[in-house]
Amino acid sequence: MTDSLTSQKPTNPPAAVETLLAVKNLAKNYGKFEILGDITVDVRAGEFMCIVGPSGAGKTTLLQCLSGLLAPTAGNVALRGVEVTEPPAEMAIVFQDYSRSLMPWLSILDNVVLPLRSSKMSKDEMGNKATAALEEVGLKGHLHKYPWQLSGGMQQRVAIARALAFEPAVVLMDEPFASVDAQTRSDLEDLTLRVKEHLGITIVLVTHDIDEAVYLSDRVLVLGGRPTQVVDLIETNLGGHRDQISTKSTPEFAKLRARVYQEIRSQAAPGQP
After folding, report:
1. Domains of the chain (ranges plus CATH)?
2. Which strand (E) or helix (H) includes residue 220?
3. Are 161 and 133 spatial neighbours (Cβ–Cβ below 8 Å)?
4. pLDDT at site 89
5. Which of 35, 53, 150, 212 sits in a 20 to 30 Å window from 236, CA-based?
């Protein structure tokens, strides 16, 4: 008879998780006014992290420091171990106001090609990458339309495609779905999850919407205090496949939502929503 112990497969230790973006003791002041204070957090390669906190907590300021658009007062941000002092080539940013980020006189294809012109790619290569990115977000049939011919949700898809054309390792998103209606927002959330899974990229997204943060993320970073500190870093553990109805109907989702809401509410200033 075979020994049941020796017949078992050896248990392999879990693979080490690579830190893609490391934030260490980061602080940001505007004169004597302290916005961010001593923030330390690691963003894992391939994860979806959402950043939440009360209004005025400095979420966008933190995102700008992560991107290299804003220099911290103290501490640092490193991408793959290299300090970020300007926007890295491996990083793309999607802003909230898509209408101001798109050139209305350029076609959808040319809008996505535009930032690639600073690269050493050939014209054909730029066109191919832009077309592939637009196909990724479901806009291949709209290449030669202009932004004003598209709905708000479709325009935001163009902005996402422009970020993807760079083939970045990490995409930073600042309230990217705040300006669209509820149904379009849900569609864009699901699109972003599909793109992340298909391309294997890392996403860091700032949002005021607690449901959105819990639904999208692998981990939720809760900010609060004066100056702003890390209040909590929550593993969602909701699984890889998410659905707007079934996922949000689970007890686990409800518990996570309540936990995040309570933590944000406890950090809000008196009279602040």
Report:
1. 19-90+170-267 (3.40.50.300), 103-167 (no CATH)
2. strand 219-224
3. yes
4. 87
5. 35
